[in-house]
Amino acid sequence: MKIAVVGTGYVGLVTGTCLAEAGNDVICVDVDEAKVDKMKQGQVPIYEPGLDTVFERNIAENRLEFTTDLASAVKDAEVIFLALPTPPNGDGSADLSYVMGVADDLNKLLDHYCVVVDKSTVPVGTAAKVTEAINKNAKVQVDVVSNPEFLREGFAVSDFMKPDRVIIGSSSTKAQAIMGELYTSFVDDPSQIVFMDERSAEMTKYAANSFLATKISFMNEIANLCELVGADVDAVRLGIGSDDRIGKRFLFAGIGYGGSCFPKDVTALSNTAEANDYDFKIVKAVTDVNERQKQTIINKTKAYYDGQLKGKKFALWGLAFKPDTDDIREAPSLTIIDELIKAGAEVVAYDPEATDNVRKRYADQSALSFADDMYKALDGADALLIATEWSEFRTPDYAKIKQALKAPVIFDGRNLYNLDTMKKTGFYYQSVGRATVGQKG
To answer: Is residue 377 a contact partner of residue 316, using CB atoms and an 8 Å limit?
Structure first.
């Protein structure tokens, strides 16, 4: 098929590249000329494992192109994906100005039937608004489909190429047939393509992410209670995760979720409820718990030093909201940095991929510096704080850590280390929902 993808952010670029990998002719559109020029030269503008290989291959085989010209991109397109930003407004509602702006442009440009796909995460009722905008005074009527993405950062290519389900929201049998044909090559079983109406598809995305966020916040509450009663959250996780009604995923305790999806989608669902005069108590609690959880590692650090952090130096391992991405949106590390600096401490941070993004955010902050090696970040620090579970942090050289730190003190927000190992190696070690190892120095 001939496909246009409008927007080359995280979702748009992965979508366009993977559709090209399946043999389609794809042209991606973006208003950023410098970004488009770089992509034409084979430069991937985001960090996502495995994307660069597929990206370069499809450019070389002339199945993947880039342009700033929307008109030429959609001229012969059979399917047009809208993968545009929907950032939160001040009240938490989704800003649809980018989506509706392109819809207005398509109203003037389209002269043939095609399927326009809302790939962005959008509120319930958006497909109807886009349909009205495009078809108003149009030369030809088009169908608008809701096709929410379920891409995990760090696994986006495999998630797109081998999805566990594809949600197609459309009341048009013609559009359903086209979308079904497009996705057939990505699934092993046709039942993995789930057809429903547009509004249900839009709600499905918010419901899925909010449910997963609820699991995370619930386990973090359990972890906090475990610390008070002397239970071990890892044992509890194994105990409940073995129940197939609950499942093993999203049960790891930590210092809260971040990223581009969960915080925004939970807030947007809450906003939708409020707009319809419904008090969605659980969703509100999920957000409250998550914000409080980001503070737990700071609270433990303050308690250890009797509230006196001024003049202290802390090493921080991990800046991205999760491993295998450079995304720092809503990352717990940012809360940690802000609170430590506010308390008068110095922070030396290390992350394999996200350093540049954090450096830009704190360009004028002298109390924050960055190391190019995980062990160099430790030099002369009073303690180590861990905010992201990168693989390279999981099996460190404990002797190196002890040698570099002023004292063998670790506050672990991701439960990376075995408690017996911490005891044998002589660390003071506080994690999440587990017993504290060692005595306060």
So the answer is: yes
Q: Which residue is it, tokens 């044998």?
A: 424
Contact partners, residue 67, CB within 8 Å, separation at least 6: 27, 28, 29, 36, 73
Is residue 26 a contact partner of residue 63, using CB atoms and an 8 Å limit?
yes
Single-letter amino acid code for the residue at 305:
Y
Alpha carbon distance 5, 27 (integer Å):
6
Residue 308: count of CB within 10 angstroms of its CB: 11
Amino acid letter, residue 317: W
Task: Choose among 125, 123, 183, 226: nearest CA to 436.
Answer: 226
CA torsion angle for 63, 68, 72, 74 (degrees, to 10)? 70
Greatest pairwise CA separation for the chain in angstroms: 76
pLDDT confidence of 260, banded at 50, 70, 90?
confident
Please give the Cα distance from 372 to 153 (Å, whole number): 23
Contact 364, 331 (CB under 8 A): no
pLDDT for 216-241, tens place per residue? 999 999 999 999 999 999 999 999 99
**Choice among 18, 28, 114, 261 that is catalytic:** 261
What single letter denotes the amino acid at residue 311?
A: G
The helix, strand and coil proportions of the chain, stated in percent and rounded to the nearest 5, come to 45, 15, 40
pLDDT average, residue stretch 181-185 = 96
**Token duo for residue 327:** 């995304």
User: Where does 348-418 have alpha helices with state H?
Assistant: 355-361, 398-404
261 is catalytic: yes
What residue type is assigned to position 74 of the chain?
V
Task: Tell me how many helices (H) and strands (E) the chain has.
Answer: 17, 14
For 160-170, how does the pLDDT look when each residue is reduced to its tens digit (9 = 90+)? 999 999 999 99
CA distance linking residue 57 with residue 238, whole number of Å: 42
